[in-house]
Amino acid sequence: LVEVGELKGAAASVDADTRFNGGSLAVRGLSMAYGEHEVLKDVDLTVRPGSVTCVIGPSGSGKSTLLRCLNRLVEVKGGDILLDGDSILGMKPEKLRRRIGMVFQQFNLFPDHTALENVALSLTRIKRMNKDAADRVAKARLAEVGLAGRQHHRPSRLSGGQQQRVAIARALAMEPEVILFDEVTSALDPELVKGVLTLMADLGRRGMTMVIVTHEMGFARRVADQVVFMDEGRVVEAGSPEAIFDRPQSERLKRFLAEVL
Ligand code: ADP
Ligand code: MG
């Protein structure tokens, strides 16, 4: 697999061994509604510093909405969200998004900019870095995700897996305390999924705090410190991968696992 090979090259560089200083998250009694439609109901979640939380559950159960609440792409209705002990609800969304990064299913790269520019632009715009410094950081981050040789390519000349790794490099460049991933491998051809999951597992091993919405149950079992099962806007069960996958308690989780495994 070419794309996994690119990552092995990256792992040899110094950057790829640096440890992250991941932050903690605490969600307390969170509720959220789109108009009259209640989408999150009394959600509690504790994410330890440097841990990997995988969120699983059927379509429409509120997984994406939960992630959007965590970096305030949508406003919550009730409850609280603490980042390293401080409520994020009073923080300016622009400031918060430096501290909590997000990677989306559809990459959300700028199509008319190269990989390097895609990473550097958020540094000059959001972190107010000068261009030379931004380019230096962007190059290092692209090397870290195995794309040193692709920095001058536009997204259309990259595979989906490479585009997603540019999006991850862009998130890393902000030096966030937490990164949220929303089904980031769901739009990829099957042979490209592994490279992205390998990269995410590596970030987790290095201490990045991550909340990952995923349908990749094998990944969740291998990499997660905690698995959270959501249904109809609630956390139905949360626990270790072994507890969730081998000893599910609720009928809803048993039914879900029977369908996806
Ligand atoms: P999941 O990611 O688990 O599939 P979502 O968080 O996307 O679930 O959606 C949860 C519920 O909120 C669904 O019923 C969905 O139809 C609804 N929903 C999601 N986004 C919007 C929106 N922008 N406006 C109105 N309803 C929405
Ligand atoms: Mg979703």
Determine the fraction of residues in helical runs and give it as a percent range.
25-40%
**N- to C-terminal distance:** 25 Å
Bound heterogens, unique: adenosine-5'-diphosphate, magnesium ion
Q: What is the N-to-C order of secondary-structure elements (H for helix, E for strand)?
A: HEEEHEEHEHHHEHEHEEHH
Structure class: alpha/beta
Beta-strand content estimate = 15-25%
Helical stretch tally: 10
Strand order of the largest sheet: 6-7-8-3-9-10
Rg for CA atoms: 18 Å
**Total number of strands:** 10
- What is the molecular shape? globular
Describe the 3D structure.
- Keywords: ATP-binding, Cell membrane, Membrane, Nucleotide-binding, Transmembrane, Transmembrane helix, Transport.
- This protein is of the alpha/beta class.
- The chain is built from ten helices and ten strands.
- The protein has a six-stranded mixed beta sheet with strand order 6-7-8-3-9-10, with helices on both faces. Strands 2-1-4-5 form a four-stranded antiparallel beta sheet, with helices on one face.
- Helix 5 (131-144) packs across helix 6.
- The protein is globular and about 50 Å long.
- The two termini are 25 Å apart.
- Bound molecules: adenosine-5'-diphosphate and magnesium ion (MG).
Short description:
Belongs to the ABC transporter superfamily. Belongs to the binding-protein-dependent transport system permease family. HisMQ subfamily. By secondary structure, the protein is an alpha/beta fold.
Question: Which structural traits does this protein have?
Answer:
single chain; 261 residues; alpha/beta; six-stranded mixed beta sheet; four-stranded antiparallel beta sheet; 10 helices; 10 strands; binds magnesium ion; membrane; ATP-binding
